[in-house]
Amino acid sequence: MELDVLHQLAGQDISIDFDEAVLVLDFGDSAFSFLTDLDKRDRFFQIMDFIDESPEIKIVLSLADSDSLNEEAYYGYLRNIYGKDVGLNNINQSWVYEENVERARQLCFHHYTIMRRLASKKVIVDGLRGTIVTPFFGETLSADLRYATPDMRFSLAHKKYGLPPGGALPYFLPRYIGQGKAKEIMLTSDYINAEQAMELGLINGIVSPEDFVAECMKLLRSIGNLSMTTITSTRLFSRPLKNDLESYFEAEEKILSGSW
Predict the structure, then answer these.
(1) pLDDT exceeds cutoff 50 at 98
(2) In CATH, what number is assigned to the domain containing residue 202?
């Protein structure tokens, strides 16, 4: 496989490694920057296209630094696109969706990324470390499998700023735990730790932080031995219906733009 092509597409933002049918994409501390940077978004989609066309790749393991998706990073990101200090509970009222290009790009990136991950022919796996804030909490539920370190926790940080739950969280979470429990968590919980996430079926395993990537790779080896027919058909038959998810995103945009 021509890894040089992938390295060129990844640039300095994504670290790439390949071993025994598993391609590792490590976004380091750059995950939030992909939300509004069109060039990075395009390169990510080109990487996914390359992956789907490569017969040697069966599994994609995505990672980010343990502090890159936490509340501090989220606050910094919101401050950047808002243009000033972010006040609690009132930021959504201060945003005019149609006029805020950065905000619109953020939402669109999550939409496009989720749809692209679901459309992939390969098994999509997320390695979760540290605190994972709302938009990425939702997005990771679009993956096929999730492994987490013991200190991982999902944070519903959007509530601090009066924002809606992003990353299609209201769409995916009920698919795992039911409508009633999902609403309860989104309205009353601030955090879900790794043990709770495991009990709820939101992650597939808790992995030691030491040699985290290597341990995840061990867990994925049995999948790497499967045929692509088995892998692709299993993914296609079990994924959400495209029209349902597109309708959800359309409704989300209408609600945020005030045209609902």
Answers:
(1) no
(2) 3.90.226.10
